[in-house]
Amino acid sequence: MKPQSTIIVPSTLVLLLSFQLIAAAADTHESFLQCLSLHSENSTSISKVIYTHYNSSYSSVLELTLQNLRFSTPATPKPLVIITPIHVSHIQAAIKCSQKYGMQIRVRSGGHDYEGLSFRTSYNSPFVIIDMINLSSISIDVENKTAWVQVGATLGQLYYRIAEKSPNLAFPAGSCPSVGTGGHISGGGWGILLRKYGLAADNIIDAHMIDVQGRFLDRKSMGEDLFWAIRGGGGASFGVIVAWKIKLVDVPSTVTVFTVRRPWDQIATKLVHRWQHVAHKLPEDLFIMVFLRSLSSGTEGNRTMEAIFQSLFLGGEAAPLMQRDPDCGGKKTVMKRAGFNQS
Ligand SMILES: Cc1cc2nc3c(=O)[nH]c(=O)nc-3n(C[C@H](O)[C@H](O)[C@H](O)COP(=O)(O)OP(=O)(O)OC[C@H]3O[C@@H](n4cnc5c(N)ncnc54)[C@H](O)[C@@H]3O)c2cc1C
Ligand SMILES: *[C@@H]1O[C@H](CO)[C@@H](O)[C@H](O)[C@H]1NC(C)=O
Ligand SMILES: *[C@@H]1O[C@H](CO)[C@@H](O)[C@H](O)[C@H]1NC(C)=O
Ligand SMILES: *[C@@H]1O[C@H](CO)[C@@H](O)[C@H](O)[C@H]1NC(C)=O
Ligand SMILES: *[C@@H]1O[C@H](CO)[C@@H](O)[C@H](O)[C@H]1NC(C)=O
Ligand SMILES: *[C@@H]1O[C@H](CO)[C@@H](O)[C@H](O)[C@H]1NC(C)=O
């Protein structure tokens, strides 16, 4: 009898304790949801953008833009609530209520974060995802060569809308169309227009964001220091970015692109070596980048290396440029010396 009761007592305690914890969590959860409705300017519409485990679409909303499948496992910590704001007041409500109920916030735009920082935490504290997917409007001002883009818009959507309005305007940013403008621009954002126009973050002229106190700020009201910080420092360190005003850049209506692949033998080694010397001396209109990757070769599954040169020339004919060597007063050919003529 005695040994048995000493076993029963502790386990009952554990059970009671965990019931209390679950009840407390459920209470917090309920209060948090009520808080959201109260703090939102429009409590009728906020309920339509709140997803908890009880909503059947919770998982599909969570998975929709999640890119790194390493963080799509049952063991990955899941948010208590996902909010997909369609109005700025929804973001303000989420920030205020998260503070009140001790919830962490994760902000997601395109979901491409390599570490999954936009949709998970690495420790066991309850958290909320503010998923910007439904704030994705884009308005292009061709006359002034500017555009307002909300962070839920992807790079592909942005490029498409610009191209619809003009064949001579573009925005210098990354090449993967599903990357979100929220995370991309706030972290810098590089792409094939880099040489001539710099990073995406270099081409931002205004921004709308919500800060930790729930204030709506633009460039003027946030001040130049904060405006500088959100263009490269990672937006989530400072608040929730809602939209960017971007500067559009001039491009010719005809451009030239090419890709050259070389196996990792003497030629590729020479080419990469040569590329390091000339790539930055070429005219700004010619961009050449190189990917070095490993691949399996032969039947024994041995691995070898390959160099892939990808290029964009802002013009119709790149060949004459490729024949000049910026190191030799334009006399010898750039790539011939290094083996491109063997293609
Ligand atoms: C397939 C792939 C291709 C890529 N190609 C390129 C490329 O060509 N050039 C390049 O420069 N980079 C590239 N990247 C990197 C990419 O730019 C970054 O991962 C970027 O942060 C993704 O932005 P996101 O909005 O899609 O990601 P998210 O995962 O939504 O966010 C990334 C980070 O920014 C924060 N954040 C997101 N939205 C906001 C917001 N509205 N306010 C405040 N903080 C926010 C998140 O909390 C998180 O910390 C690529 C990534 C992938 C996976
Ligand atoms: C509140 O939401 C309802 C339903 O979505 C909408 O009809 C109404 O215009 C909104 N009001 C404000 C002030 O945003
Ligand atoms: C999720 O479920 C709650 C409770 O049933 C409901 O009020 C809310 O509108 C649902 N969310 C969505 C996005 O449908
Ligand atoms: C939000 O975006 C998703 C995915 O694009 C879409 O299916 C849904 O209808 C949108 N919801 C609202 C309220 O706009
Ligand atoms: C261009 O900018 C000027 C000055 O800010 C503004 O008055 C004009 O309306 C803008 N053009 C368009 C098409 O919006
Ligand atoms: C593959 O690697 C093994 C071990 O290094 C080597 O003995 C063999 O010759 C290689 N095969 C080829 C086709 O390079």
From TrEMBL:
It comes from Citrus unshiu (Satsuma mandarin). GO terms for molecular function: FAD binding; oxidoreductase activity. Its cofactor is FAD. Pfam families: FAD_binding_4 (PF01565). Residues 75-251 form the FAD-binding PCMH-type domain. It is found in: Secreted, Cell wall. PANTHER family: OS08G0158400 PROTEIN. The keyword Metal-binding does not apply. Keywords: Cell wall, Disulfide bond, FAD, Flavoprotein, Glycoprotein, Nucleotide-binding, Oxidoreductase, Secreted, Signal. Belongs to the oxygen-dependent FAD-linked oxidoreductase family. Residues 1-25 form the signal peptide. This is FAD-binding PCMH-type domain-containing protein.
